[in-house]
Amino acid sequence: MSKIEAFNRALFLQINGGDATPTWLIHVAIDIADDLIYLIPLLLLGMWLWGDSTRRSQAIKASLVTLLALGANQVIGLVWMHPRPFMLGLGHAWMYHSAESSFPSDHMTVFAGIGLTLLFGGAFRLAATVLTTGFVVAWARVFLGVHFPLDMVGAVAVAGVAYGVIAPLWRMAGNTLTDLAERLYRAVLARPIASGWVRR
Length: 200
What we know:
mainly alpha, Vanadium-containing Chloroperoxidase, domain 1, 72% helix, 0% strand
């Protein structure tokens, strides 16, 4: 076993909930691990429906970064299978998860992809909220025994690389893509826009 893997396992055992973990804490962690991810589509929808052109551009760019990162995760999982803790009989698994590769974490990849794009785009408060929430979700998923800590670090790294790939392409075509998306949006949702329910 490499030193990195030994460190990964040791850190996991420090975070993972033990036999004396209160039931209420397990339930809270499960809610965090499973449900906070749904705040991301709500955030992106809100940025689009009630945001200005800059916010809409950030929402599209963040979505593209995240989709690319998630695609990269699938490739990594196919090329290198890293078992989850419960597949190794390590620690305690407090929630069900399919026995598939753990690295990188898809949940953390989503939060990192959105959060880093907002951060580099100057939306510091939104970025801080997303990244902080992602950190809490990362803790919950390690605490519950379905991920290793370095799965989360890997997710941030993959999201960072995805941002690096998308950023130069976005500089070339981002304004055009945003403009086309806004035209389609205004055509499809002309009535709600005219009624003032959502922003033009």
